[in-house]
Design goal:
heterodimer; A: 188 residues; mainly alpha; two-stranded antiparallel sheet; 6 helices; 2 strands; 59% helix; B: 539 residues; alpha+beta; eight-stranded mixed sheet; 27% helix; globular
């Protein structure tokens, strides 16, 4: 092997390691959503949309919000060009149907993060806001999106408990110590 | 070479019906001698119902057409007495591989658990399939069963009445008239009977074209289903490779919507496409080429008075999932025993409405699965394509994405959940054999469970006592007595008992479960039988 190849391999390993937190965060998001929606299996539309304490007034409202904000940032990251039009969607009151759409969005985010490299992280995207366009870096958008997901998923967690369902642990993902068996398929 | 689909198998012969002074009336006339029509006719003859099959042709299907036959239809064919030669001739396969671009991303194994007589799938050209069915018809004729195929008999007019159907039939000797108590229309996707009755389809038409090329070649590809998304040799489209008997390979290439069909079908255009896929030095011979589009649609109802539609005449799906011929065989499996009971005056005519209930449910399941597969294979929007590509990309390294790969959800038997014919269920017994389910096979006492079921109503008892025969207002129930240790592997107990210590199952003539109990109770069995033949509305 030529020294140049050795250098470039080492560089790509280093780059891969630098991308790993983003990739793992996206996988954690996919797993946590699958686990949360798994706990909602069999929940009626009435229970899903019933009033419950929280920032949003129902489990349906919280989870629809997570989903549509995911769609908004995915569109920006993927340069889909839809902008704020992604919010023109009906609120979905069937947990299984929303779960399937959420899984689709999670897959797109996971794939986007798998393809990242340092140059892509430093790229910018134009985000359409109600009061005009704002240019943001990709890494900042991703960090904000992960934060947004976890922030609201925690609220949903409380509402799941309020609905009389034992809420599943959503942080047993990264550590060898307590990784849940269902998290394994999300790790390489 | 004289190919099987070029030889007349049921040549035109003048029937005495053509010289009768008045139209001759038959209990059942089946229109169409394809896989579904022939299966219907064989099933009727086995029930001793006289049946005439009219077909506008006199040969088996031209080209291979349907090739994947699933486990449940093979079990139905066993009941009809012609499963064995098909499985022997067919190519048995269980493994599938999925490619995305140039990468192999995913493999799957359809092999069900051990302890079943029939495999997940065989591949067999439709012409072989039909030939074996015609052989079976000839065998039944020789046994004196009341079955007759009339080749080059084209139905030109259908006149449905309250108690029968009048037909006009064109032959090489000119037209004649016929009457039938019941008409079963199995005349395919373009069903002339459906058109003559002014009936239509509801559902989606997919705007895409696919090229089928069956090629004869010596190749050492394994006996697997290979599916490509966006392959380098067919950019932006999909491709499928499948093995058939006699060194024939099925190649299916998506072409897109905006193409010139006649041009694409010409060998000089087909061959370069195939060489791009198989390698420029590949040596092959084209056996059959066709371009198809498809629809995922069905009739609103399959029964229209005395005319009943089955197979592609009643519903159509995309080929992804092998749900066409496979669902047609489940249609006639469901229909024939009901028709027999009604003809014998043992069940009300309304029993046939349950054919609608159960097979519309089956068609909807097939259409739903087939539509999903089609949407995955041919994404209709940029968002769908992004999702599709994400699933494929991630499935290579991440197991969680693999269940989302959809290159065709392959045909599995339909369970008639919610059917008005279903009787009581029992606690603690396995979900897979709940009322409405097709019987799960199991190895029992040196043979197979499914070889002992079907044809009439049966009481399957496992570690439970019951009378050997019961007569419920003329309908007989015969007992099949088993013990859980008839299957030392434990399959029978696992599939039929679950946590229960014994069980009594009422089985329908089509091998579906009608009801089940932890122990024999004559009153309960009689009530369930009455419900299963439509003599009692569901409670």
């Amino acid at each position: 092997m030529k020294p140049a190849d050795a250098d470039s391999n080492a560089k790509s390993r280093e780059e891969g390691a630098a991308m790993q937190p983003y990739r793992l965060m996206a996988m954690n998001n996919a797993w946590a959503n699958a686990r949360l929606y798994g706990a909602l299996r069999g929940l009626s539309a009435a229970a899903f949309t019933a009033a419950r304490p929280g920032f949003f007034p129902s489990l349906a409202a919280t989870l629809n919000h997570i989903h549509e904000v995911d769609l908004y940032y995915l569109d920006a990251l993927e340069r889909g060009g839809a902008g704020r039009a992604v919010y023109d969607r009906p609120e979905i009151d069937d947990p299984a149907a929303l779960g399937a759409l959420q899984a689709e969005a999670d897959l797109r985010l996971a794939r986007f993060c798998q393809a990242l490299d340092p140059a892509a992280l430093a790229e910018t995207r134009v985000t359409a806001r109600a009061d005009g366009a704002v240019t943001e870096r990709v890494d900042a958008l991703l960090l904000h999106l992960f934060q947004h997901q976890i922030h609201h998923r925690g609220q949903a967690h409380v509402q799941v408990q309020h609905a009389g369902i034992a809420p599943p642990q959503l942080d047993e993902f990264y550590l060898d110590y307590d990784r849940h068996p269902t998290a394994a398929p999300y790790h390489r | 070479m004289n190919r099987i689909f070029e030889t007349p198998l049921y040549p035109y012969r003048r029937s005495p019906d053509q010289d009768a002074a008045r139209p001759v009336r038959h209990p059942v006339v089946v229109v169409g001698a394809g896989p579904v029509g022939l299966a219907a006719a064989i099933d009727l003859a086995l029930h001793d119902v006289p049946v005439i099959v009219l077909d506008d042709n006199d040969k088996v299907s031209f080209g291979s057409r349907a090739i994947c036959f699933a486990k449940r239809p093979l079990e139905i064919l066993d009941r009809l007495g012609c499963g064995a030669p098909m499985v022997e001739k067919g190519v048995t396969w269980n493994l599938g591989k999925v490619y995305f671009g140039e990468r192999r991303v995913y493999g799957f194994n359809l092999l069900p658990e051990e302890g079943h007589k029939r495999p997940a799938f065989i591949n067999l050209q439709q012409y072989h399939f039909e030939k074996y069915l015609v052989d079976r018809v000839r065998e039944l004729e020789a046994e004196g069963r009341p079955i007759e195929i009339r080749g080059r008999n084209r139905v030109t007019a259908v006149e449905p009445g309250a108690d029968g159907v009048r037909l006009e039939v064109e032959t090489p000797d000119g037209p004649y008239r016929l009457e039938a108590d019941w008409l079963v229309a199995c005349d395919g996707a373009g069903s002339p009977v459906r058109a003559m009755m002014g009936l239509d389809f509801v559902g989606r038409v997919f705007e895409d074209n696919f090229l089928i090329a069956d090629v004869r070649m010596e190749a050492d590809f394994p006996t697997e289903r290979w599916f490509w998304f966006d392959p380098p040799f067919n950019k932006g489209q999909s491709a499928l490779l499948h093995k058939q008997p006699d060194g024939i390979w099925r190649i299916d290439l998506q072409l897109g919507w905006d193409i010139d069909k006649d041009r694409e079908k010409k060998p000089e255009n087909v061959i370069p496409r195939l060489k791009a896929m198989l390698g420029k030095d590949a040596r092959f011979e084209l056996e059959w080429v066709s371009i198809y589009t498809f629809q995922c649609r069905r009739m609103e109802r399959f029964r229209h008075g005395r005319v009943v539609f089955a197979g592609d005449a009643a519903h159509q799906v995309s080929p992804f999932g092998a749900r066409g011929a496979n669902s047609g065989l489940q249609d006639t499996d469901n229909l024939v025993w009901k028709l027999k009971l009604v003809l014998d005056g043992l069940a009300p005519e309304s029993l046939l409405d349950s054919y609608d209930d159960e097979r519309l449910h089956g068609a909807d399941e097939n259409i739903r699965n087939s539509t999903r597969s089609t949407d995955f294979i041919t994404p209709k929007s940029e968002t769908s394509r992004r999702f599709r590509d994400a699933v494929l990309d991630l499935s290579e390294s991440f197991a969680f994405a693999r269940p989302l790969v959809n290159s065709g959800r392959l045909s599995v038997p339909c369970t008639y959940d919610g059917s008005p014919l279903n009787g009581p269920d029992a606690d603690d017994m396995p979900a897979r054999t709940r009322p409405g389910s097709p019987a799960a096979d199991a190895p029992v006492a040196g043979g197979w469970l499914l070889d002992r079921l079907g044809g009439g109503f049966q009481l399957l008892t496992i570690d439970r006592d019951a009378p050997d025969r019961l007569d419920v207002d003329g309908v007989e129930i015969a007992r099949v007595a088993l013990a859980s240790d008839d299957d030392p592997s434990g399959g029978l107990a696992e599939r039929y008992l679950g946590a229960a210590s014994g069980a009594v199952y009422l089985m329908r003539p089509d091998q579906h479960v009608a009801a089940r109990w932890p122990a024999f109770d004559e009153g309960a069995v009689r009530a369930a039988l009455r419900r299963a033949v439509g003599r009692e509305a569901s409670a």
